[in-house]
Specification:
Layout: H1 2-14, E1 20-27, E2 33-43, E3 50-60, E4 71-76, E5 86-93
Parallel strand pairs: 3-5
Antiparallel strand pairs: 1-2, 1-4, 2-3, 4-5
Length: about 100
């Protein structure tokens, strides 16, 4: 039995880390799904100006606890539906 657990631990340790993103909920109209917008800032390679890039992720919210404006942390997961590849990790700040 110890060999099986060692193999399982090695397989788990070699698995790549899951991506984690922070963003703001922009829509919660779907059942158990919220749309989270993540803003990424980077320097323009030629001009040096800081530019913002926005991307929206469909996120799984099992308890339907999210509201628009909440700041959340999401984590990458296996495909849950056609568009959902992220799930809610934690709520960082509630909307006022």
């Amino acid at each position: 039995m110890s060999e099986e657990t060692e193999v399982a631990e090695q397989a788990e340790s070699t698995r790549p880390r899951r991506k984690v993103r922070e963003g703001v909920v922009v829509s919660n109209k779907m059942d158990k799904t919220a749309v989270v917008e993540v803003v990424r800032r980077s320097r323009h390679p030629q001009y040096g100006k800081t530019v913002q890039q926005h991307k929206k992720y469909h996120t799984h919210d099992e308890e339907n606890t999210l509201n628009e404006g909440d700041k959340v942390r999401i984590v990458e997961t296996k495909p849950l539906s056609k568009n959902k590849r992220w799930r809610l990790l934690e709520i960082l700040e509630r909307a006022r």
